[in-house]
Amino acid sequence: MGFRIPLLEEKAPEKLNWLEIALNAQSIQEKQNFNATEACYFLGISKYALYHKTSRKQIPHHLSGKRLFFRRDELERWLFSHPDKTVKQLDKAASAYTSNSKLRKEK
């Protein structure tokens, strides 16, 4: 019968998880090529989302046999090529669409 520290036992897995995340972040900062797990961490998405995007060819990737690889520069380019539009840009696009729709109906 050993001496137990309940609070420490509760927090230990949480602390180990945090340490693992910190180490992964550091190693990913230095890498130029990622496997699927590292790409998920880099992008902040689940493996399901990553595989879904690769199967639909929505994200740049490379196959070697059945293994997926990702290049950091391609992922960064892909991330920044899909910016969210501002409210002003959306309003302008909506106005252009509605004015074009009105012109088509008048013809």
Summarize the structure.
With 107 residues, the chain is mainly α. It has one domain.
Descriptive account of the structure:
The structure is a single chain. The chain has one domain (32-106). The termini are far apart. A hairpin with a 2-residue loop joins strand 2 and strand 3 (67-71). It has a three-stranded antiparallel β-sheet. It has helices spanning 6-30, 36-43, 47-55, 72-80, 87-106; strands at 33-34, 62-64, 67-71. It has 107 residues and is mainly alpha-helical. It contains five helices and three strands; from the N terminus they run αβααββαα. This is Helix-turn-helix domain-containing protein. It comes from Pontibacter anaerobius. InterPro entries: HTH_17. Residues 36-79 form the Helix-turn-helix domain.
Number of strands: 3
Radius of gyration: 23 Å
Strand order of the largest sheet: 1-3-2
Strand content: 5-15%
Low-confidence stretches: none
Q: Biggest sheet, open or closed, and with what strands and sense?
A: 3 strands, antiparallel
Structural class: mainly alpha
What is the typical, i.e. mean, pLDDT? Answer: 80
- The number of domains is 1
Shape: extended
Report the helical percentage. 55-70%
Distance between the termini: 89 Å
Tally of individual helices: 5
List the main descriptive attributes of the protein structure presented here:
extended; mainly alpha; three-stranded antiparallel beta sheet; single chain; 9% strand; 107 residues
Helix/strand layout:
Elements: H1 6-30, E1 33-34, H2 36-43, H3 47-55, E2 62-64, E3 67-71, H4 72-80, H5 87-106
